[in-house]
Design a protein that fits this description.
The complex is a heterodimer of chains A (about 110) and B (about 110).
Chain A: E1 5-7, E2 10-13, E3 19-24, E4 31-37, E5 43-50, E6 53-56, E7 65-68, E8 75-79, E9 88-95, E10 100-102, E11 106-110
Chain B: E1 4-6, E2 11-14, E3 19-25, E4 30-38, E5 45-50, E6 55-57, E7 60-65, E8 70-75, E9 84-92, E10 97-100, E11 104-109
Parallel strand pairs in B: 2-11
Antiparallel strand pairs in B: 1-3, 3-8, 4-5, 4-9, 6-7, 7-8, 9-10, 9-11
The chains are: A mainly beta (about 110), B mainly beta (about 110).
Amino acid sequence: EAGVTQFPSHSVIEKGQTVTLRCDPISGHDNLYWYRRVMGKEIKFLLHFVKESKQDESGMPNNRFLAERTGGTYSTLKVQPAELEDSGVYFCASSGHLEAFFGQGTRLTVV
Amino acid sequence: RKEVEQDPGPFNVPEGATVAFNCTYSNSASQSFFWYRQDCRKEPKLLMSVYSSGNEDGRFTAQLNRASQYISLLIRDSKLSDSATYLCVVNYYGNNRLAFGKGNQVVVIP
């Protein structure tokens, strides 16, 4: 069975550009999460989807971040326009009932 | 106060020794608890769930103390391959959101 997959694995963009990250959860998992780890800090929650609905988006830093999960399958996280402080590793996770399984992350570098 | 607190360490452990560390959580409504392991530049991977009665998986033992709101992880007979960051993760049933600690960095020394 395929795990959680994320694309791209790395992205280097200039400040002001737009980047879209994609996450494909494990098939059948209704819950999909986005997390971010900034260097030296703990992993922080961004938002949580249940199927296609946003259950909790309290962790989204500001309105430059937009997440979607059309059809309740894969999800995208768009950052527009990107700022230097957006650099970090963006993890996606999915879960059925309890524990979550993580993707390998997207390492975003904004220069 | 942070939702989940861990002493980041590092914990330098001689090979073969035992190491233990705690994680405290602030929300008494927390329902599920996990230890995840994260290797450098990799994604977190589930190590073990933590049950109310405590549970063991090989050299790893996890305990939960609801009264004092902490969970613990003990690693016996440490191997070099145990070097990693161990993340404490708490799930709130109210919104099924996972909260992470900073992680305990363990370095096993030959």
